[in-house]
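REQUEST ID: PR-0412
SUBMITTED BY: lab tech R.K.
PRIORITY: routine
TASK: structure prediction, single protein chain
INPUT:
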Amino acid sequence: SSGRRVIISASTDGSGTGTGTATHFALVSSDTLLACQELNASQGVTSGNTFTLTAISITIPDPTA
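STATUS: complete
OUTPUT:
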């Protein structure tokens, strides 16, 4: 494969900031969306609850002409 592959380590200390049903997670830096992905299964969340995520791999393809 071509491009760059980035491995994001597993997270064991995430914290919910809202109450409702989570269906996706997002990786952000300041105000920039870096990646998002659908969860394997939706789950109810309450603000302040902690969560874990497994490691993820993101591949950024080489540019094409």
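NOTES: Strands lie at 4-8, 11-15, 20-29, 32-45, 50-53, 56-60.
REVIEWED BY: pending
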